[in-house]
UniProtKB/TrEMBL annotation:
<dbReference type="InterPro" id="IPR018535">
    <property type="entry name" value="DUF1996"/>
</dbReference>
<feature type="signal peptide">
    <location>
        <begin position="1"/>
        <end position="20"/>
    </location>
</feature>
<dbReference type="Pfam" id="PF09362">
    <property type="entry name" value="DUF1996"/>
</dbReference>
<protein>
    <recommendedName>
        <fullName>DUF1996 domain-containing protein</fullName>
    </recommendedName>
</protein>
<feature type="domain" description="DUF1996">
    <location>
        <begin position="35"/>
        <end position="282"/>
    </location>
</feature>
<keyword id="KW-0732">Signal</keyword>
Length: 352
């Protein structure tokens, strides 16, 4: 895997040659136990999520999300979609208490993304990162009301390709892993979630939130998806989330030679249970315009309106759940009954 410096050079090479797709940052909108895709109407949902995107986010979301949102934490100002993942936690190997691991601000690898607050990086690719292949393979944008998930918190063994971990050390992301790194990562833990690229063309959702999609991708990277099957014939953008979790603040609180990996997701579970949710909310035909543009990496050759991240960071939603998720906790939010959110008075060697 290339270092960040090498990745910059690679992206620059794409810009001077052919390019395909979108890449942009979204700041954190909120951290709450809400999940309108997998647990619609549940207030609260089972475990904590980090959510980015439009301010129409709520426990229940149906229909055209973009028609109800008034702002977004994403750089693309016409993208009122919502994107969310389970939150990462550090579990102290000495006393079993938990503390949230914060996402690092999205790195400004390409222009205008300075100033993101936490959040994640979003990709919509047409073919791969260097080609769009639109003459042979047109891309259809998602319709209003569309949603999907990838991965499952109940899985205990390796899932399909595209859900991965990397240990950032010395500016290098390291090899792709299917589980949490076992050693300390001085640049944080990098996680990636690739969504399926084939849609049945009929259903906006399915009972398991995944059966209306089909994954033909066998690689962990941004490679072209093989042809879609007749059951799911519509080729849609390949959606991907990337996040860097700031695990370095916990480096002095565990010893890899004597302690097992101390990082867990907000549902605890196993590393194989990593998952992500997507709710489409682009305004009008904005995403389709970008997907129809050939050789346009990052911003759709100006076909989409962008906003400064200082403006995106003003977008908020109210605290629907109203529970304490900060500080050291005896239990993960939602996992310990009436006392699940009681702060533990535990002395630590850093201020998180």
């Amino acid at each position: 895997m290339k270092s960040f410096t090498s990745s910059l050079g690679l992206l620059a090479a794409f810009i001077t040659a052919t390019q395909a797709g979108l890449r942009f940052p979204c700041s954190t909108l909120t951290n709450q136990r809400l999940d309108p895709a997998a647990q619609p109407g549940a207030l609260p949902s089972a475990h904590l999520h980090m959510i980015v995107g439009g301010n129409a986010f709520n426990a229940t979301m149906e229909g055209d999300v973009a028609s109800r949102a008034t702002c977004t934490t994403c750089q693309m100002a016409e993208d009122f979609s919502n994107y969310w993942v389970a939150h990462m936690y550090f579990k102290d190997p000495k006393n079993g208490t938990y503390h949230r691991v914060m996402p690092q601000p999205v790195q400004p690898l390409l222009g205008g993304s300075n100033g993101a607050q936490g959040g994640l990086t979003i990709y919509y690719t047409q073919f791969d990162l260097s080609r769009d292949n639109l003459k042979q393979q047109p891309i259809k944008a998602f319709p209003p009301g569309f949603r999907m998930t990838v991965g499952s918190p109940t899985v205990t063994s390796k899932q399909h390709a595209g859900l991965s971990y990397q240990c950032i050390t010395g500016g290098n992301r390291g090899s792709l892993l299917s589980t949490f790194p076992t050693g300390k990562c001085n640049g944080g833990i990098f996680t990636t979630h690739h969504f399926p690229p084939c849609w049945d063309g009929k259903n906006l959702d399915s009972p398991d939130h995944q059966s209306h999609m089909f994954d033909t991708v066998k690689s962990e990277y941004f490679d072209n998806a093989p042809a879609c099957p007749s059951s799911h014939p519509v080729r849609v953008p390949q959606v991907t989330f990337e996040i860097t979790w700031e695990t370095t603040k916990f480096a002095d609180l565990w010893n890899p030679s004597t302690d097992a990996n101390p990082f867990v997701w907000s549902f605890e579970g196993t590393a194989a249970g990593t998952h992500a949710d997507y709710m489409f909310g682009w305004k009008g035909d904005a995403l389709q315009r970008a997907m129809d543009k050939s050789e346009c990496f990052y911003d759709g050759c100006g076909s989409i309106k962008k906003q400064q991240m200082t403006e995106a960071n003003k977008c908020t939603v109210k605290d629907f759940v109203k529970e304490n998720i900060d500080g050291w906790q005896k239990f993960l939010p939602g996992m310990g009954g009436a006392n699940a959110n009681a702060n533990m008075k535990v002395k630590k060697s850093f201020t998180a």
